[in-house]
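For reproducibility, we list the full input for the LLP complex.
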Amino acid sequence: MSLPVERPHVEPDFKTTLDLGAVLPCTAEVKDGHLFIGGVDMVTLAHDMQTALYVMDEAHIRKQLRDYLEWTRFHWKNVDVIYAGKAFMSIAMCKIVDEEGCCLDVSSGGELAFARAAGFPTDRIFAHGNNKTVQELKEALDAGVGRIVVDSFEELERISTLAIERDMVQSVLIRVTPGVVADTHCYIQTGAEDSKFGFGLRDGLAMRAIERALELPGIDFAGLHMHIGSQIFALNSFAKAIEVIVHFMDDIRKETGAAVRELDTGGGLGIAYGAPDQPSSIKEYGKVVVDDIKAHCEDHGLPVPRIMVEPGRSIVANAGVTLYTVGTVKSIPGIRTYVAVDGGMTDNIRTALYDARYEPTIANKADQARSKVVTIAGKHCESGDIIVYDTPLQPAEVGDIVCVFATGAYCQSMSSNYNKQVRPGVVMVKDGVARLIVRRETYDDLLKCEIF
Ligand code: LLP
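The corresponding predicted structure, in tokenized form, follows.
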């Protein structure tokens, strides 16, 4: 694959790091030309810890979790915030989520194992997945997870059988697809009717699933779940889906007499990847979600359920950056300059997968203007191994520390060992202290599953 040809022409923007606005972690500062996050000098950190390196701003993560709690509970007291662990999961992250009083969404047995290893209270865990294996279901029941979010008829039967075997009753949410097409990349839309997730409303399958949940022993029908997609800027996509689902709550009452005690509206709030991006705030999002649910419930004469929101990206994306060291600079006259760094699609697949766009800076030239335009390339054996196409950047030299912003979500969690690359470590920074929370892999880690 060669470079996609139809890329817009980019000019230097002469921005310095602090002009990059909403993409920055909340503690970003520049001192003596160096970028600091959480009071820690990113240049020193890169030299001490080896690059590529993920860095997470703990204050930013906690602020996002608190904002979600504050701006949803401001409108209705009975709201819980469920952090979607797939965005970024580590033991330290699970502990922060627990300390902030939030719940946790796990989407596999592996994520459940992480939550348990972190000592996360299992009654606050929501188990997800469109095709949980029987083994994963057993693990979820045995762990005593608070809710299983059910995606299929087969799964309902399996949970019932497993619960009866264990002489227990499992509370479930039924995942429905409200038929709303969110305004986002087609790969991360999930609420449309044509989706592998959940039960459709229009085709009547969601109602049938609820009827089945109500009649099956070992199952407690607690409520509904939906998730219309990810990186959504337009709050009216959420509003539309909420209108549809509350209407469906009324249908459920009329057809079955059952109450929807809980309504989980999923995640999806977009974040700033580019300096001009202006996503909705958590405050605006909280108001739309909670007020709309309350208003529609009132219209239908329904009691307001316990409400849950399930954010992932908007908690961790802007908290995270990736640090790299420049290894080579290759200028092709009249074409472009490639600045190659010591990472790439193994630590950030999002550019290759979604044509995602990032804002970089040079951490040791953080007060200088981005006066050049370059392409930041990875070190892997693919032409598509690009981290940022045609981006303004300070003049880059070998040894510079490149910092790419907004990589806290879906980068480490989607990382790979392609080319037998070791995965970077993760450092949590706070109040001038850098705490290693995930160590960098070693070649021995790569070899540990091999049978000699
Ligand atoms: N709840 C459920 C059931 C989900 O499937 C997801 C994300 C979330 C919550 C959290 O959504 P968020 O607030 O993070 O948008 N790899 C893609 C994103 C995939 C999202 C998968 N589900 C990316 O890098 O953009």
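The chain has twelve helices and 21 strands. The chain has two domains: 17-57+320-447, 59-316. Both points were considered when choosing residues for closer inspection.
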